[in-house]
Specification:
about 350 residues, alpha+beta, Phosphorylase Kinase, domain 1
Length: about 350
């Protein structure tokens, strides 16, 4: 568990603001004075250590702490780092009592700190980076996993129209649109012929499970994207809504389930696949976790999971191949290019294996 302990140390807490992410703090203080209810300076700015793609800052005042999420400086893809979308979904969920930080305001005026940003409450609690929860007892692990799946189900149960999220994403055909997007990216970035990917490109769009339902989806729901109560096994805030949209809840949930089926090293830190006896450890087996999700969402079961596991691994392969392609074209940093390249073929084979389990013929 040493690697996970290092991750906990590496990503927890704050640091001085790195040079490339500095901004005019006096401008921010003036904006908060005008727009944030109850704000009283002076203001001290720190930067969170965690691996966010949108720079995230802790704003400390004598009476309370806030968090600022902003677009990174520099040239960006038009749809990337959409902090305004993050703010939209948090702003819609907070009045419903869903566990998100209280939002205070969105600033689209780039003259204030250089890029768009929003301010929300700082939620004091625990952010845990290792899914095996090495420092918890079996009973605590069980309670945390139960809270995690209940909070996820609650999100998928939200009536997005009543929440005012009409137009937050397209309704229906989510998997078809995702497959088209990642196939296009994969083909544009292709650096080697992978037979399994070719077969999946043909098979997956033709075999999308029926009954496409639309809900709010988080896009990257995992342990280190939530704040737990300081002492209780309770989710007090779900974080990092950058990938949120309207989409297929089973695509969202099955991506979260990849921790139960993908080999250690291929998913988030602290793979539970490394634990021999989940029951003794206190973590629900996948079937049990799926049953809890179904119970909370009123479903009778999730018979199409093998298809969704194939889809998720295919999507991940497409994302990684896109990074490799950008390195090839000189538009991305090559720091992790080798490790990304080494992961594409195993992901393609994993996706192919689950497609066969879902009914794909040789």
């Amino acid at each position: 568990m040493a690697e996970a302990a290092n991750a906990q140390d590496l990503f927890s807490g704050t640091k001085p603001v790195v040079e490339s992410h500095k901004f005019n703090e006096a401008n921010l203080a003036a904006w908060m004075e005008a727009h944030v209810e109850g704000y009283e300076g002076p203001l001290e700015v720190r930067q969170f250590k965690g691996g966010q793609s949108n720079p995230t800052y802790q704003l400390i005042t004598p009476k309370k702490k806030y968090v600022m999420r902003r677009k990174p400086p520099g040239n960006l893809l038009p749809s990337a780092h959409a902090v305004d979308r993050e703010y939209t979904v948090i702003n819609a969920l907070y009045p419903l009592g869903y566990p998100v930080a209280r939002p205070y305001g969105l600033c689209t005026d780039e003259s204030v700190v250089g890029t768009m940003f929003y301010i929300m409450d700082m939620m004091e609690g625990r952010i845990l980076w290792d899914g095996t929860l090495p420092d918890s007892s079996p009973a605590e692990r069980r309670a945390i996993y139960e809270a995690k799946v209940k909070t996820f189900a609650d999100l998928h149960n939200v009536d997005w129209r009543k929440a005012g999220l009409e137009g937050f994403g397209k309704e229906g055909d989510y998997i078809a649109r995702q497959l088209h997007r990642w196939t296009k990216q994969y083909k544009a970035s292709e650096t080697m012929h992978i037979p399994e990917m070719e077969k999946l490109i043909e098979w997956l769009p033709r075999n999308i499970p029926p009954g496409d339902k639309t809900t709010i989806v988080h896009g990257d729901y995992r342990l280190d994207n939530m704040v737990l109560h300081p002492t209780e096994p309770r989710v007090i805030a779900v974080l990092d809504w950058e990938l949120s949209t309207l989409g297929d809840p089973i695509a969202d949930f099955s991506y979260h389930l990849m921790n139960w089926v993908m080999p250690p090293g291929d998913t988030t830190r602290g793979s539970i696949m490394a634990i021999a006896d989940l029951k003794a450890w206190g973590i629900p087996a996948m079937d049990e976790y799926v049953a809890l999700y179904c119970q909370h969402t009123g479903r009778k079961g999730l018979p199409e999971l093998n298809y969704y596991f194939s889809y998720n691994a295919f999507r991940l392969a497409g994302i990684l191949q896109g990074i490799i392609g950008r390195v090839r074209d000189g538009t991305a940093n090559s720091a992790n290019a080798e490790s990304n390249a080494a992961r594409v073929v195993p992901l393609a084979r994993f996706a192919y294996d689950y497609a066969r389990r879902a009914g794909m013929k040789e």
